[in-house]
Automatic annotation (TrEMBL):
<dbReference type="Pfam" id="PF00651">
    <property type="entry name" value="BTB"/>
</dbReference>
<keyword id="KW-0880">Kelch repeat</keyword>
<dbReference type="Pfam" id="PF24681">
    <property type="entry name" value="Kelch_KLHDC2_KLHL20_DRC7"/>
</dbReference>
<dbReference type="Pfam" id="PF07707">
    <property type="entry name" value="BACK"/>
</dbReference>
<dbReference type="InterPro" id="IPR000210">
    <property type="entry name" value="BTB/POZ_dom"/>
</dbReference>
<dbReference type="InterPro" id="IPR006652">
    <property type="entry name" value="Kelch_1"/>
</dbReference>
<protein>
    <submittedName>
        <fullName>Kelch-like protein 6</fullName>
    </submittedName>
</protein>
<keyword id="KW-0677">Repeat</keyword>
<dbReference type="InterPro" id="IPR011705">
    <property type="entry name" value="BACK"/>
</dbReference>
<feature type="domain" description="BTB">
    <location>
        <begin position="39"/>
        <end position="106"/>
    </location>
</feature>
<dbReference type="InterPro" id="IPR015915">
    <property type="entry name" value="Kelch-typ_b-propeller"/>
</dbReference>
<dbReference type="InterPro" id="IPR011333">
    <property type="entry name" value="SKP1/BTB/POZ_sf"/>
</dbReference>
Length: 609
């Protein structure tokens, strides 16, 4: 950093332009502070006085602004005593306020973070928070989680949470775990993201915390047991817990209930992160048997790629359906509409449950659809636009997953099909597409945005045509992947657009949440052309399935990376992949528990007194 010496011989930071008003204000305040001139406030820590300026303190800190402008004693007295703050920490805070620089070390960082939070000096809190996040370790993450949780610092809390949830089992044995306060322990053990393969691990961690200080913690046991997902324990684990309860607590017992797999999930609140795997499930058309070029059977198949183990699995097929809607919610897949081999358009809705491994048929849509939008938001499924025979649709409807019923919603501003679609922050986005039949080829240069809370559609223009792309939500925006894009501004006539677009594109672009294209996010071109791309988001990466190969990309990277694993040879002949989603699939170790719908018994904690 460039520096220069002033008339007093000190080195001044000139990152602010030396002829700017900000430069003169900054340098003037530094000199006044150094020479203790015009000081109208005195901060006191550990009996040591720090003369300073009220205007500067109030400009940085809402804490001091309220103190000096409201009828507190400090508003007319010059001296402010800061209890429980060391003089060395206060010195560093004042150095930062006057110079913009601060020395952060491992020894002082947590005290400095706490002081910055207490005084509401947010820029300093963020600086120290980043330092703490960068230096996080197995030894410090529990303490940093408690610190971030107490001060509601979301960035540090996110880093510490990820560290804890990924390493919960060894951390539950760490010497600092029993020293956490109740609210911190509650927030940890209630997390869906704990990487544990069995709920017994969480129960044992809670018991260790209680037994560390039984006189204080025993009365809190019932509240903590409310966070243990007892229905996810196997019968053997229930016996272990029951024996432990009898040995440790004579005044409590387990109350038995008979539950199937869905009942266990509902009662417990769902699986922990370590109890399921994430799959990319691709919907594609496969030939079951082909001899001499003649197709004997054509079905819609589903191929699953386990992202944790990088292995491939098959999911039971459906009857042949072309141009269906396809999405997932948790551990369930949904397929809507589509066209059968004989050309008929369907309004069917099918559900695949990864717990049972079976498909069921749900109530049908009011209108048969293909090439339509199919999105999920707040436990509702939305079927939007599309085609029914030769007609392009402007109708839309929603399916309530709890009530299992369809209801109409506001119609689209005009009929449209073949668009990319995505959900972002309770809004549905339909990107590009065709506003008439594919044969007429009139492209929609724009984005339709539906507000699910207001039942209203809005329109945003798009500078180019976009057709058969795939949209992926990530980083508070929408990545539009490949498809057919035409940037020409020439006047469109029926039939010409299709010819202009037929070559497709490797290009991708990013939409902000207001629907505008952002030039600030650079996305490398796809390594290979595929229409439409099968793209999903998982762990801050976009994964694109091309044939039997997966390519991956993380924002900031310069190119796509090819996965080491390819799809295996299956009993069916692969034709094309037309869509993909991520699906939560219970690990094989827990599937027997969730699929047992006989007299499976589970438990709920009940105290006798």
């Amino acid at each position: 950093m460039n520096t220069k010496k002033d008339q007093d011989g000190e080195e001044d930071d000139i990152s602010v332009r030396s002829n700017s008003l900000g430069f003169y204000i900054t340098q003037g305040l530094r000199k006044l502070y150094k020479n203790q001139q015009l000081c109208d406030a005195i901060l006191v820590a550990e009996g040591k006085n720090f003369p300073c300026h009220r205007a500067l303190l109030a400009s940085f800190s809402p804490y001091f602004r309220a103190m000096f402008t409201r009828p507190f004693r400090e508003s007319w007295e010059r001296q402010v005593v800061l209890e429980e703050m060391t003089s060395s920490i206060l010195q560093r805070i004042l150095d930062y306020l006057y110079t913009g620089k601060v020395l952060v070390t491992l020894d002082t960082s947590q005290d400095l973070f706490t002081a910055a939070s207490r005084l509401v000096i947010l820029p300093l809190q963020d600086i120290v928070g980043r330092f703490l996040a960068d230096s996080i370790s197995m030894d410090s993450c529990l303490g940093l989680y408690a610190l971030a949780y107490a001060h509601n610092h979301q960035a540090l809390l996110h880093v510490a949470t990820r560290h804890i949830t990924m390493n919960f089992e060894p951390l539950a044995e760490h010497e600092s775990f029993p020293g956490l306060d109740l609210s911190t322990v509650m927030s940890i053990v209630s997390s869906d993201k704990l990487l544990v393969s069995t709920e017994l691990t969480v129960y044992q961690a809670v018991q260790r915390w209680v037994k560390f200080q039984p006189a204080e913690h025993l009365s809190l046991l019932k509240k903590l047991m409310g966070q243990i997902r007892l229905p996810l324990l196997t019968s053997e684990e229930v016996s272990t817990v029951q024996a432990d309860i009898i040995a440790q607590y004579g005044n409590a017992h387990l109350q038995w209930e008979q539950l199937d797999g869905e009942g266990r999930l509902l009662k417990s609140g769902g699986l922990r992160r370590g109890m399921y795997d994430d799959w990319i499930v691709s919907l594609g058309l496969f030939v079951s048997n082909m001899q001499g070029g003649v197709v004997e059977r054509l079905k819609t198949h589903f191929l699953g790629f386990n992202l944790q183990t990088e292995s491939w699995e098959e999911i039971p097929p459906l009857m042949y359906l072309d141009s269906s809607g396809f999405l997932s919610v948790g551990h369930k897949l949904y397929v809507s509409g589509g066209q059968r081999l004989n050309g008929s358009i369907l309004g069917n809705l099918h559900e695949f449950n990864a717990l049972t491994g079976q498909w069921i048929q749900l109530p049908s849509m009011s209108v048969p659809r293909r090439e339509h939008g199919f999105l999920a938001c707040k436990q509702k499924l939305y079927a939007l636009g599309g085609r029914s025979g030769r007609n392009v649709l402007d109708s839309a409807e929603s399916f309530d997953l709890a009530q299992k019923t369809w209801s109409p919603i506001a119609s689209l501003p005009f009929p449209v099909s073949h668009f990319a679609s995505a959900t972002l922050k309770d809004k549905l986005y339909l990107i590009g597409g065709f506003s008439h039949t594919r044969a007429s080829g009139l492209a929609h240069r724009g984005i339709l945005i539906y507000d699910t809370s207001l039942n209203v559609w809005n329109q945003v223009p798009l500078a180019f045509q976009c057709y058969k792309s795939t949209a992926v939500t990530m980083d508070n925006g929408i990545f539009v992947i490949g498809g057919l894009v035409e940037e020409s501004s020439r006047r469109e006539t029926p039939g010409t657009v299709i010819r202009a677009l037929i070559s497709g594109t490797h290009k991708c672009f990013f939409l902000s949440k207001d629907g505008t294209v952002s030039q600030d996010v650079a996305i490398p071109e796809l390594p290979i052309l595929v229409l439409p791309p099968c793209a999903v988001q998982w762990q801050s990466r976009i994964h694109v399935l091309v044939g039997n190969t997966i390519y991956q990309w993380r924002p900031g990277e310069l190119s796509w990376t090819r996965s080491r694993k390819s799809a295996p040879n299956t009993r069916v002949t692969f034709l094309t992949v037309v869509n993909g989603v991520t699906l939560r699939v219970p690990k094989k170790t827990i599937q027997p528990l969730l699929r047992d719908s006989s007299a499976a018994l589970t438990a709920v904690w009940v105290a006798d007194n």
